[in-house]
Amino acid sequence: MGCNTKNLICFMFHVPCSVKQKGVTLIELVVVLGVISIIISATVGIFTSFVRQQSRILSEQELLSQTSYALEYISRSVRDAVKDTSGSCTGTPSNYYTLSHFDSVSGSYQGVKVLSSDNVCHEFFLDADGILKEIKDGQIAQPILSGNFDIQYARFIISGDKTIASVSSSGLTQPRVSVSLSFKLQSGQQERERIIQTTIGLQIQN
């Protein structure tokens, strides 16, 4: 075993070895242990990096999956919105959309109210606890996106104009509601922002 170890050292460092020499000196043992330590450290580092990378990928996949579901759910309600004749849902008679939860810091609205085609009032909004929620027909607000994701902001904008707060039957003929969600993702020691958005259109028939 001593000769094999010594031959390995000689081969690695291109040092001539005498076949008559036997055993392993303390220096040779230290060198071998040092090489093994470097190999183990590199292997552990690569494995740790791989695990972190996989964790980040899985987290992003889960975020995209849940966000796609939530935005599609919101899109169906907004796309199928009908005129709120009484104003009991949107707050103003004959409105199709009414934005809610105004954020004075960003100057944008963080929610929207619509009356869907099945005569159900929906309000989608970012709550103060940072969770995207829905209030259906005045009931208790329910999350539509996991609270595990750190939402920085939600923005609802009508036809690209932040000053428009509602759409009525006498207003825009082809209004669009853009929904933007900003998430803060942890990547190792760094934080990065991920913005996911969609735009929903409605053909209003007066």
From TrEMBL:
Designated name of the protein: Prepilin-type N-terminal cleavage/methylation domain-containing protein
Domain of life: Bacteria
Protein's UniProt keywords contain GTP-binding: no
Entry keywords, A to Z: Membrane, Transmembrane, Transmembrane helix
Gene source species: Candidatus Staskawiczbacteria bacterium RIFCSPHIGHO2_02_FULL_34_9
InterPro entries, per the entry: N_methyl_site (IPR012902), Pilin-like (IPR045584)
Transmembrane segments: 29-51
